[in-house]
Q: What sequence folds into this?
């Protein structure tokens, strides 16, 4: 059944009939499995991969490296959860290497993100330092090329 | 100059590819979606490309020995043993320019004017013209959908005459996707035992079989190695079509003659490709598996969809083609393809391009991304609905 997850990771809009055709299950069994995945939070949502630049909507994205001091009891979890609850924050990940938390932020403008970092993120207890990197252009996201039509140079052949 | 009078009659009589015109229309058509290619959509795995680049950087730009790099021939033997339980040695192995050259050499090494070559059809299109060029006589053996396009012992027996020199075994099969399992091949082997009939086993799709059992090489059946030339290559298994590299393994006296012809016509297979191929055989079993799994997923997807729209197809167990019956449309293969192209801009290949017994079927390649397949299938479905209306 892990196969279903792989198929949906590739294309979240694949119909249960198509999935069933591939896995050899009945469409009903696939639908039941999908409900189960949702209930168990194995599938946590479905998103469209939007190229906002092409859509003509100005959006700013930033990646923020955060160094924090872990708490004695909860380690990094408590502060990570606090940050994850901010609406502006798209993703929060605990990292190995030179810093602790990596955030992805979406905002309407550079100022909005800058203000968020200065006013809300930096003052949080436990935050030692922040480094903000603005995204200039997205070429590929979640395995999908943006703006580049894959070219099929193959000829007809027998 | 009167070129028509100058051209050798045998060359002039080679069956022209009747659907070239059809391809040309499709190639020129804007927004046409093709399901017509006969090669992988994957790029050659990076490590193989890198090995080719490194061989160039090191200046390995000379001819190799005629039969191919010894290192490569030894790796081919190791690979064939590891994957298919075959036991060949480097002197029984010849590296060629694609599987196609190996087929050409095998036919030319064996067939004299008047010799009969049994060609089960529908099949890849090169066996017949190569046979007629040597003066051999192609004997077309129409395979049947009710036998899942497998060759049966009965059919073979009926086709054998005292002039039969060679049997072509084109499995896993382009265009039908048919696979001969061990239990299907044993009765064929039994018909051949005690005869002098040779077998050209074209196993270029050997790595692409689905549904459990792995491909069984015809040469691995008891008593068959002595009469079989196994043709295989890198194009399909490693997505290396453009590298033009294949090979043949068989009885040494025959490989020696094939090497002699190859020496005169070709000299040696491309050196860069040979170095890249060594890397492929040593390190890329996992890449084969990754691509095979992807094909298998698309295969199930497309078979399910086609059956759902009433284009019934038996389950193809190999290669990357489905071969559905278009009986439901009440059109001939060519009409079906022409109208589908003109009305919906989808190009599939008429089954009769692969032999008369392919009439009533079309070949659909699933060597495309899921998004591409989905769009094409939607168009085919709406084409059928409009036919019904």
A:
């Amino acid at each position: 059944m892990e196969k279903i997850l792989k198929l949906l990771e590739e294309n979240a809009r694949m119909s249960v009939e198509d999935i069933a055709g591939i896995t050899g299950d009945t469409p009903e069994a696939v639908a039941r499995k999908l409900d189960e995945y949702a209930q168990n939070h194995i599938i946590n949502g479905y998103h469209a991969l939007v190229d906002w630049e092409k859509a003509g909507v100005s959006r700013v994205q930033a990646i923020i490296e955060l160094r924090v001091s872990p708490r004695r009891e909860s380690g990094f979890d408590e502060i990570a959860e606090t940050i994850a609850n901010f609406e502006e924050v798209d993703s929060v990940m605990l990292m190995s290497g030179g810093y602790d938390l990596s955030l992805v932020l979406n905002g309407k403008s550079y100022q909005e993100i800058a203000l968020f970092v200065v006013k809300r993120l930096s003052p949080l207890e436990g935050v030692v330092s922040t480094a903000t990197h603005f995204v200039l252009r997205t070429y590929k996201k979640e395995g999908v090329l943006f703006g580049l039509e894959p070219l099929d140079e193959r000829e007809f052949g027998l | 100059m009167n070129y028509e009078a100058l051209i050798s009659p045998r060359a002039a009589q080679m069956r022209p590819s009747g659907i070239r015109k059809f391809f040309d229309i499709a190639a020129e058509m804007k927004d046409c979606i093709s399901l017509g290619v006969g090669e992988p959509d994957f790029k050659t795995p990076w490590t193989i490309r890198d090995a080719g680049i490194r061989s160039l950087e090191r200046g390995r730009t000379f001819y190799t020995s005629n039969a191919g790099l010894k290192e490569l021939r030894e790796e081919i033997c190791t690979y064939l043993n590891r994957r298919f339980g075959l036991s060949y040695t480097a002197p029984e192995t010849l590296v060629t320019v694609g599987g196609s050259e190996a087929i050409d050499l095998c036919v030319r090494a064996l067939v004299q004017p008047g010799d009969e070559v049994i060609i089960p059809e529908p099949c890849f299109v090169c066996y017949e013209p190569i046979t007629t060029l040597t003066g051999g006589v192609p004997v077309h053996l129409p395979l049947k959908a009710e036998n899942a396009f497998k060759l049966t012992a009965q059919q073979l027996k009926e086709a054998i005459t005292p002039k039969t020199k060679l049997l072509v075994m084109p499995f896993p099969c382009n265009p039908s996707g048919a696979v001969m399992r061990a239990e299907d091949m044993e009765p064929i082997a039994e018909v051949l035992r005690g005869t002098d009939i040779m077998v050209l086993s074209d196993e270029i799709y050997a790595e692409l079989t689905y549904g459990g059992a792995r491909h069984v090489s015809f040469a691995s059946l008891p008593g068959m190695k002595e009469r079989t030339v196994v043709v295989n290559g890198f194009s399909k298994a490693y997505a290396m079509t453009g590298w033009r590299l294949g090979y043949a393994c068989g009885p040494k006296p025959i490989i020696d003659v094939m090497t002699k012809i190859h020496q005169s016509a070709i000299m040696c297979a491309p050196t860069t490709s040979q170095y890249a191929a060594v890397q492929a055989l040593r390190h890329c079993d996992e890449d084969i598996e990754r691509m095979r799994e992807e094909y298998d997923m698309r295969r199930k997807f497309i078979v399910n969809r086609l059956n759902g729209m009433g284009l019934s197809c038996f389950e193809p167990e190999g290669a990357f083609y489905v071969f559905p019956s278009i009986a439901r449309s009440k059109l001939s293969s060519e009409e079906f393809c022409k109208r589908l192209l003109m009305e919906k801009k989808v190009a599939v290949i008429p089954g009769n391009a692969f032999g008369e017994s392919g009439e009533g079927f079309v070949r659909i390649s699933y060597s495309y991304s899921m998004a591409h397949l989905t769009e094409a299938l939607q168009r085919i479905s709406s084409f059928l609905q409009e036919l019904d209306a």
About this structure: Chain A has a mean pLDDT of 92.
